[in-house]
């Protein structure tokens, strides 16, 4: 059972995923998100995966497809909040998510979309 | 860990019972005789050991096994060994290295084993088989000729099992040492250092095997989360050699850090290591590399938007 929600923050779409994501859910999310990007003419997509314990190869591919489709619609995609164990598993599987932006937190991801490193 | 199992396989009382249960009666008797468990021979051997105790201790103390010891210590150890052996023969446990008699000579065996710590080759290993010759000679001088061979068997069995008990102690001592050293090595695992707000460094040292590498990666990623790091520096100045396996591990760590939103910089690549990596065809791909930790730190500062400048007012 999973809940995904898409929130519009100005010109950025924030996607949060809670619980496990089945393949069907992932495909539904991809379709919903692509149409949202088109209808809202968003400039960026932030996908928060901090609620995910497991990211399998299908979900990794889906993330890649979302990024590619959004890029066609002139939106950058950034995946945020990946857990260490998920990152290690993905790397061991050889899924390095090339071409996908990454950030540690939603705030960092927003900065990345705004094209400025946040001075601390 | 292996040694008790080993000993059990050699002298498993349950299995012996099983053998007796399935073998015909005649074969069982025969087996018992050759194994030297005839009560009469047992008694006469015990009597021999007790009566000639001082002779035996004297010839044992002069064997190569005890020459390195002071005479008083040697005599004491021989006496303890002999007491243990008598106990084993009385209890009939001469084929069981875990018998109580062997357990009681354990301190002596431990001291014998400790003396062999210098050389694993076996050349200078204390070998209890040197005790067998003198003992059997004494037995042959005293024993009635028709039962001598059975006593030989019994005494040989005891000393062979004593040797197994000694080997067991040596092996477990070695295993303990290895475990302790492994624990020390894990404690030496590299710490994650915070260089600046958002910049972490992990100095990798020594040989990177898969366990140590995995631990380093995990602690780095955890610290990235805990400290909100945007830059992670892998410093390999202390790594003695970079082969394909180590390079692959570095690359994996860098990619995992990138998945978490941190940029990875590999620093401390010495010229020889750079050449080796090129010759091995290792390609670190998009991962940034720097010669020194200082260069990597400067790069990290510029990534997080900091600038190092020389304060002109104080310079003069």
UniProtKB/TrEMBL annotation, chain A:
Domain (STAS): residue spans on this chain: 2-113
Gene3D superfamilies named among the record's database cross-references: STAS domain
Signal peptide start-end: none
Protein name: STAS domain-containing protein
Source taxonomy: Bacteria, Bacillati, Actinomycetota, Actinomycetes, Pseudonocardiales
